[in-house]
Every structure is written in C-alpha cells, then in structure tokens.
C-alpha cells in the first residue's frame, strides 16, 4: 500500500513538471510571437516610409521631365504611371496585416523593382539635363554670333550709306564763275532797268569725272528784291527737296564731265524795280550755285 502511494505521488509530480514545462513553452512561444509581430510592424512602417519617399521622388522627376516639354506618351507619361503604381502599393501596405509576412515581403520586392526603374529614369533626366545645357550653350553662342553679325551688317550699312552720301556729294555738279548782267536790245551791257532787254546769267559747270554724263537740265531762279521769282508760267516747275518749285529759265546740255561755260537768258517783259537781285542755279535736283547782282534806275 505504501508503495502504491509513493508511485502515485511520483506520477503526480511528473504531471506537474510536464504541465509547468508546457506552460513555460507556451509562454515562451507567445513572447517570441509578440517580438516577431513587433518586428513585422517596424518593418512595415519602414517599408511605408520608403514607399512615401519613392512617391515624392517620382513627383520630383515629373517636374524635371516637364522642363523638357516631353510629350504625354513619353517620359512624363511613364513617370506618372509609375507614381500611380507607388500610390496603389502604399495603400495596400496600409491595409495589409503585419502578420502577413509573405505579402509584406512581396511588397518589399516590388519596392526594390520600382527603385531600379526610378534610377533608370534619373539617368534619362540627367542625360536630358546635359543635352539641354549643351543646347543652351550652343544657343547662346548662336545668339552672340547673330548679334555680332547684325552689328557688322549695321556697321556695313552705315558705311555704305556714308559712302553713298560721299559719292552723291562727289558726283554733284558745281557751278562757278557766276555773273549776271543786263543787255540792251543792241546787245550792250547795262545795269539800268529802263534799258534792259534781257538778263544774261553766265557761269561755268566745273569739271567732275565722278558725275554721270549725258543730257542734263540746268535751271535758274531769278529772285527780285521783294523775293518774288521771275517766271513765265506757273507750269514751269522742277523737283527740289521733294517739292515742285518754279524756275525762271532752263537750258538742256550734254554733259561730258569736262568744264563747260554756259549762259542762260531771261527776256524782260515785266516791270523791274531797282535793288539787289539773286539768282540760284540747279541741276539733278541739287542747288549748284548762287549769285547776287544789282539793278539801278
């Protein structure tokens, strides 16, 4: 009887030990599981931060891509598509349970894939940046050369204008040795108004080898002391300084570039008052000389 009692005590003690060991094992498993869940939570949180950072980087790359005016079916469109994918995975990560280690691991792998894709886009953006810098520099050089060429053209145009003006001045006829006298009907010189039949304007066209040769009209305007011009008809006009003005008389000559002595006459058919008269000579639209003289009673 005493032996049986000892046996049962031993069995009870063994069961107690087994129960204690089982309890400790279950407690230890719970502790390990709690630590594992905490680890998964931390990993999930870190993964979320990485997704958020990746999303921000894709937005930044879209801004960079837009600077190059890339069309919607190219780089910017692809960046937008990848950014949408990142947002979708971020939303899934927020809803997935930390204990779903398999899906969390898959999301981590997809994150690495998106990072590799983004690095490829970064290289494309960098290439576009470098190309843009080269094109910008070339554009500056082209603009600078264009401005320089415009300055040269402007300078040449100015020099051409000045040269043209000098040539124009050089080719202008010039009258010298100008004199005026009254002539009687017996062809005698006089300055008495009541005896004058004609006024004779004598002058010389100086030699000018740069002036165009050929037929030329020489005009004179005789201005009375009261500044009126002696004219035969209001239709007798020529162009001077873009205006039509009257002339007193004219003579057509064949100019050869050599010196020519000329006389142009004015038939007196009106009343002349005593005083100082002035005569102006014109050719090719230019005034080529002037002279003043006096007539007496």
Description:
Helices cover 53% and strands 24% of the residues. It has 297 residues and is of the alpha+beta class. The strands form three sheets. A four-stranded antiparallel β-sheet has the order 2-1-3-8, with no helix packed on it. α1 (2-66) packs antiparallel against α2, α1 packs parallel to α3 (101-170) and α2 (75-95) packs antiparallel against α3. It is rod-shaped. The protein starts with a helix and ends with a strand.
Q: In terms of topology, how is this protein built?
A:
Elements: H1 2-66, H2 75-95, H3 101-170, E1 175-183, E2 189-190, E3 198-205, E4 214-223, E5 237-240, E6 243-246, E7 249-255, E8 260-267, E9 275-283, E10 286-295
Antiparallel strand pairs: 1-2, 1-3, 3-8, 4-7, 4-9, 5-6, 9-10
Task: Kindly summarize this structure in a few lines.
This protein has 297 residues and is of the alpha+beta class. Helices cover 53% and strands 24% of the residues.
For the termini, the CA-CA separation is 191 Å
The main pleated sheet reads as: 4 strands, antiparallel
Question: How do the helices and strands follow one another from N- to C-terminus?
Answer: HHHEEEEEEEEEE
Number of helices: 3
Report the radius of gyration as a whole number of Å.
56 Å
**What's the arrangement of strands in the largest beta sheet?**
2-1-3-8
Strand content: 15-25%
**Total beta-strand segments:** 10
Low-confidence stretches: 67-73
What integer is the average pLDDT? 77
Helix content: 40-55%
* Structural class label: alpha+beta
Shape: rod-shaped
